[in-house]
Amino acid sequence: MIQIDKYMSTEVELKCYHCGEECESDDIRIDDKIFCCNGCKTVYEILDQNNLCTYYSLDETPGITKKKEIKRNYDFLDDPQLKEELIDFTDGTTTKVTFSIPQMHCSSCIWILENLFKLNPGIKFSRADFLKKIVTIQFAEKEISLKEVVELLDAIGYEPDLNLEGKQKEKSTSHNKKLAYKIGIAGFAFGNIMLFSFPEYLHVESFSQDSMKEIFGYLNIVFSLPVFFYSASEYFISAYKGLKKKIVNIDVPVSIGIIVLFFRSLIEILSQTGPGYLDSMTALVFFLLVGRIFQNKTYDALNFERNYKSYFPIAVTIRKNGKETTKPVGKLKVRDRIIIKNNELVPADSVLINGRGFIDYGFVTGESNPVEKVNGDLIYAGGKQVGGAIEVETIKEVSQSYLTQLWNNEAFSKKYHSDINSMVNVVSKYFTFVILSIATIAGIYWWPESSIAFNAITAVLIIACPCALALSTPFTLGNSLRIYGKNKFYLKNTDVVEAMSEITDIVFDKTGTLTETGSASVKFMGEPLTEDEKVLVKTLVRNSAHPLSNGINELFDVPVTENVTDFKEIPAKGIEAIINGRRVKIGSQMFVNHFADENKIDLSTKVYLAIDNEIRGYFAIKNAYRKNLSEIIGSLKKEYNLYLLSGDNDSEKPELQKFFGEDTVMKFRQTPQEKLDFVKSLQEKNRKVLMIGDGLNDAGALKQSDVGISVSENANNFSPACDGILESSSFKKLHEFINFAKTSKRIIIASFIISFVYNVVGIYFAVQGTLSPVIAAILMPLSSISVVVFTTVTTNLFAKKKRLL
Amino acid sequence: MSVILILIGFSLSVAILFLVLYLWAVRSGQYDDKYTPSVRILFDDEIKEEQEDDKSTNQTTNSKNLKQNSIN
After folding, report:
1. Of B8, B31, B59, the CB nearest to A59
2. What is this structure's pTM?
3. Residue B33 distance to chain A (closest CA, Å)
4. What is the per-residue pLDDT for A420?
5. How far is B70 from chain A (nearest CA, A)?
6. Strand (E) positions, A250-370?
7. Which chain A residue is nearest to residue B2, measuring alpha carbons?
8. What does R_g of chain B's alpha carbons equal in angstroms?
9. What is the band of B23 on the pLDDT scale with cuts at 50, 70, 90?
10. What is the pLDDT, as a whole number, of residue A43?
């Protein structure tokens, strides 16, 4: 929102020794070190007492500012059930726990997090992982409790991001490890079998009679066993699963190829009729696995699977029998009384009981201005309190609340990835049938001579094994993913690139997506005010804590007067006072002008001003649209159907029509559910929808859409579950990104053609029953490597052409 | 020719040793974090009081790299 960093810099810049932020004065100091706030000073004191000042010499001003800190209460960490869920492992004495520390940003951070044991001897060991932004801590249960560990981290500025859904990620690391084992074994076998097959390639005369040949053959079999049974197993499993669902995916022809290669080689070697093709088989598996690892590019620090739980606190402060305690959010019951402090979220639908609420529903509706609430008003879950602490009473449980119910929608239970849509699987279906028929025809042709028939059939199946086909997609899309990443557009996986190439419709959210967050500006509409009048306005709003008042306060740069009498603030209406002898009123239309027609009241965020009972105009909150928005929309409009869904009111419709044109469908006051339904209705008309949003209110639509992209100022910030996170600085490249996805698809098709050419050449030899192991050993790696080189080079080339590299 | 068999025996045992080492390295998590150890190795055990003022510039640049790397 409107930030108060208009601090005028004095001659000498005063920088906080701890966090590097500007200091308003040099009052807070130790020796010659100046601090911006007492929080920073405290951290310095803690570190200084423990001889940990290395922290400050590794990096300049490495600290995290404590200016906006509020004292948090971690009593809920004593709850045994919650504790159980947070920790990784405990044997009663030593406990291991992993925290996500989003603030980790420099080498000093790593250093201090790994020296926690110097701050408290109860901590035995701690290790930071910078890319994942996590720290693993082992501590002695008897000396320090989990709560104290968290408090310690918080005290030095590294408040852990506590939520209960971090555990899923471990699964993917164990999967990656498995893949690493498989590649290691396949590579090892491939290299050694190749070595033992060399005499065969070179037609060494003496070798052919030698018993050595026999021994080499048996050794090759031994090496190929783990490759066949372990490394290649996932292809068999995937092919089996596909067939069971009546889908011929790419792993079917690959599996046929591997199985035929293996058994034909086994027969040849054991019957001593030939050297077999085990080198080709292991090479094939090795290349395929490398392709898989290339495709598995993941952004460790980013999370694409967040749901409302990661926005909500895991525990809240409740008041029970007059006492304040904490309670895990999951255990909240109806009629619990919760204390919501500044910047805290209301976790369940509740009624305001005590205090003045300024609820910011930005998360839920996209509406950018806080709504004022008075006692008895209903507050929906997801609203954020801006201002002093309030007390609310829950009327629904967390999971039954208005916002969280969205997650019960079926869109959230469906699995995104579907095998059928993937292009390579469509191709492989026809490919498999063609290859099987060619093999059958070749078999029938040679039939009387059964050995040649056998050779021809197996050779066709071997040479047609679509290794190059299977590699083209992972390498093209994997490379595209990296190119997107370099442009600050982070995709969940390679399937998203493919989905993006088929987009026909684009749905935009307004607030935070088309507008820049944190840059709402206040404008005065009406006859320009004189300097004296500005003084009156500024003086009046200075006395109010309402967030809108802050915005107006920022608008005028004039001195204020102390001559104020009869100041009144009427909640949800406005403020008035007599300043310099003149009556000034600022507030809603009704408040300022008693004769206003209630039915005609403008609902947009306008704050009216009256001086001496004469209306002078109104202050309007304007969102600043992103730069170059008209160009981006203009170019997208030529190729796609555009829609706009906003949770906000329609006060900016004329403004938006300048960008989108008159004919674009724009819907305002959309609830999260309505947004989801709108996307669904487009999909029912067979449109492929790209949704671009930012807040939790878009979560449903993002999930429902074919490609859901979340726009964020910083990719490490929270963003709802989505397929891709786009940093707002790259928003202008949106059209290029979609175009590039289409280019990637064309590159895949081109590489399909290349691999078909190889297959035709191979099959020419195969149907004649004259496929020698040497030809197989040359043709198969050659086709794979050339496809890999082709896709990588062309994607980079096109990326350069589109200025994405 | 039987000397070849002995040589093969040796070369294979060396190769298998390396395979086992590789599998062990993956298993023990050495490939889990490919970035932090490169920073960690630059930490001195204990920086003395006198050295504190001497702000090591190379480590500051190091931290800039860190920021760029923080996502990829």
Report:
1. B59
2. 0.78
3. 6
4. 45
5. 6
6. 315-320, 323-328, 337-340, 350-354, 357-360
7. A212
8. 22
9. very high
10. 82
Tokens of A302: 């980013």
Report the complex ipTM. 0.74
| B65 lies in some domain | no
Stated length of chain B = 72
Q: Smallest Cβ distance to A715: which of B4, B59, B71? A: B71
Identify the CA nearest to A360 among candidates A342, A376, A348. A342
Best mutation target, A108, A115, A131, to test chain B (most B CBs within 10 A): A131
Distance CA A495, CA A707 (A): 10
In-domain check, residue B47: no
CA A3 to chain centre: 26
Number of domains in chain B: 1
Domain that holds residue B35: 1-41
Nearest to A130 among B39, B42, B43 (CB): B39
3-state SS class at A87: strand
Q: Do A485 and B60 touch (CB under 8 A)?
A: no
For residues B35 and B52, the answer to whether their CB atoms sit within 8 Å is: no
For residue A638, count CB atoms less than 10 angstroms from its CB and return exposed for 0-12, middle for 13-18, buried for 19 or more: exposed
Q: Which residue stretches of chain A have pLDDT < 50?
A: 1-11, 418-420, 598-603
What are the residues facing A464 on neighbouring strands? none
What chain A holds in terms of domains, given with CATH numbers, is 1-69 (no CATH), 75-166 (3.30.70.100), 171-297+423-476+743-801 (no CATH), 313-346+348-400 (2.70.150.10), 487-517+626-738 (3.40.50.1000), 521-622 (3.40.1110.10)
> Are A385 and A547 in contact, with CB atoms under 8 Å apart?
no
Give the pLDDT band of residue B2 (cuts 50, 70, 90).
confident
What pLDDT sits at residue A689? 92
